[in-house]
Amino acid sequence: MNSTNLNDITITYSDEGIGLPVIFLHAFPLNQTMWDDQSSELKKHCRVVTLDLRGFGQSSAPPGPYSMDQMAADVRGLMSVLDIEKAVLVGLSMGGYIALAFYRNYPEAVRALVLADTRASADTHEARLRRLKSADKAETVGSRAIADDMVPMLVGRTTLESRASIVERVRSMIEANSPQGIAGAQRAMAVRRDSTYILAGVDFPVLIMVGSEDTLTPIVEAESLRNGIAGARLCLVEDAGHLSNIERPEEFNRILTEFIKPMS
Ligand code: MLT
Hints:
By secondary structure, this protein is an alpha/beta fold. The chain has one domain (2-263): Alpha/Beta hydrolase fold, catalytic domain (Rossmann fold, 3-Layer(aba) Sandwich). It is 45% helix and 18% strand. It is built from eleven helices and eight strands. An eight-stranded mixed sheet has the order 1-2-4-3-5-6-7-8, sandwiched between helices. Helix 1 crosses helix 11, helix 2 packs across helix 3 (94-105) and helix 5 packs antiparallel against helix 7. The radius of gyration is 17 Å and the shape is globular.
């Protein structure tokens, strides 16, 4: 793991392989190791960059408020440090919100997008209130309480019933994060902008993926992304929930490699 100082914080990242740059943006409230199975496969064909977003993993967790735009600016800053002009961005859930904010702010730096288990719309009023409550809970009760609440929603039914080591891995990632980072990102997602209106301007390849058992960003969200982006391809990851890349790594990698390889 490497680290660099940018935008007044320390960002921890990994940069492996050579060729087409592919940057992976992790979900909430996890860290870059959620991409380990993708990184080990994709680095055979391209340059793979993963990072702990502000508030998570080994990166700084400064006091909030954070914003999706700020997190996208951190990604842009890391690209400058690594001398990367244009990259394929792979974002899952919150990572997808950040990838869309990145595209809004730095369209010239996007080669292609992979949007997994995510949505373009902003939160509803009710969802925003739930998030703000959860941010308060992180700060008052701690990260373990957030893991208790979220693990059963993050993974799908099949994983809950039959993949105990994956459930444990997800729980450990959440518990290792600081309450301040979790609260900062929750509040940032609560005020994120609607990205639906920018979809029509996309003029590069887009792959949309979704776990067949995802209840947080269900298939209907993936279909609405696909309908909004001309030429976008939608692939279902069977027997996986919201964390489709962790729950079915081989299937996720197969679909991702098929999309990325012709560009590399
Ligand atoms: C995530 O997996 O990043 C979160 O579920 C996103 C969200 O809470 O909207």
